[in-house]
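Module 6 notes. Inverse folding takes a fixed backbone as the condition and produces residue identities as the prediction. Think of it as a translation problem where the source language is geometry and the target language is the twenty amino acids. Below is one complete input and output pair. Work through it position by position during the lab.
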């Protein structure tokens, strides 16, 4: 069986190869390729292009069209797997990607060809931890007070001063109850914080079976009821612009919005206006419509927002371990050990 593995600046082909060695599968040929810029900042720009426009927006990795023809297994991190790549594949049995999002893969065409795609949620715990950190930081002015002290200022009166209260006395609304949203819910419940959720693809029974006892409401109801809204939905054609001006307008004056998913799931202008005009108490944002966020952006001028540079999922162990987790998922899901070359 032939495996084609495509590394990049974050997850190398060598790391993929080491993970494959732990797999008792009949792989007798491994082809290592690479994709993307070597500088992480430039690579991030390529990622954003794929997230906005899909795998067809960028060129396939060099050498892939030739090597994929007789490949049985394709493993990637963020390398684009477009229709032209899949059309060239004559005997591809499975595609594996060591990340949760799959916007870099033409899933519809892979499905039409009967090629399964296996992914791995490598940093759900990290993002969930970061989200709760942002909730406390924003609602209790932790980052702002630190910044003021470093600047030689003893500040205790912040824009949200009249709204400051214990998180346990507020309702947290979770938009999106996938892997990350569920971990956030479990952790908040463990802290004794009231939680509601909104996700059209999840049932109360499903959550209850995982020990998550929360009320599921519509998106409109969530924005009306929650004091803190935290967003955990994947970016897709369906979710792009999911959170609109009417949702922001439903938020109470003492409420907060947290986003560690993707910026494009909400409309930019209504959120910026709500913060500038103090229509809501504040926000904590880890993802932006353009990254890095451009100088002069309205969010940079707001005194009621906590901003971080898309680091919610960044931990030292998440990326290096992701190929190993992917191989484990491939074993469990497909039992490829039984596939004969």
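Target side of the pair, the amino acids:
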């Amino acid at each position: 069986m032939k495996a084609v593995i495509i590394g990049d600046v974050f997850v190398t082909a060598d790391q993929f190869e080491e993970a494959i060695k732990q797999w008792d599968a009949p792989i007798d040929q491994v082809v290592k390729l690479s994709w993307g810029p070597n500088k992480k900042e430039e690579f991030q720009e390529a990622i954003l292009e794929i997230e906005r426009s899909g795998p067809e927006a960028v060129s396939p990795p060099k050498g892939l069209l030739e090597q994929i023809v007789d490949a049985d297994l394709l493993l990637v991190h963020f390398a684009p797997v477009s229709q032209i790549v899949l059309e060239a594949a004559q005997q591809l049995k499975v595609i594996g990607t060591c990340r949760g999002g799959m916007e870099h893969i033409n899933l519809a065409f892979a499905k039409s060809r009967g090629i399964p795609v296996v992914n791995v949620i490598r940093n759900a715990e990290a993002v969930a931890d970061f989200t709760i950190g942002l909730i406390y930081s924003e609602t209790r002015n932790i980052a702002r007070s630190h910044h003021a002290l470093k600047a030689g200022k003893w500040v205790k009166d912040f824009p949200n001063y009249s709204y400051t209260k214990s998180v346990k006395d507020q309702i947290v609304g979770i938009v999106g109850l996938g892997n990350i949203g569920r971990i956030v819910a479990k952790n908040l419940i463990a802290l004794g914080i009231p939680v509601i959720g909104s996700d059209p693809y999840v049932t109360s029974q499903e959550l209850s079976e995982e020990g998550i006892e929360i009320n599921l409401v519509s998106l409109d109801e969530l924005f009306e009821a929650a004091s803190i809204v935290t967003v955990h939905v994947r970016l897709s054609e369906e979710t792009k612009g999911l959170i609109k001006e009417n949702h922001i307008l439903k938020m109470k004056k003492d409420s907060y919005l947290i986003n560690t998913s993707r910026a494009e799931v909400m409309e930019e202008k209504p959120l910026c206006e709500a913060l500038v005009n103090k229509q809501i108490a504040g926000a904590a944002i880890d993802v932006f419509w353009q990254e890095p966020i451009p100088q002069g952006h309205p969010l940079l001028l707001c005194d009621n927002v906590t901003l971080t540079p898309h680091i919610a999922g960044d931990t030292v162990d998440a990326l290096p371990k992701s190929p190993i987790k992917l191989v484990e998922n491939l074993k469990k899901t497909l039992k490829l050990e039984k596939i004969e070359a």
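Reference fact for the lab report: The longest helix spans residues 318-334.
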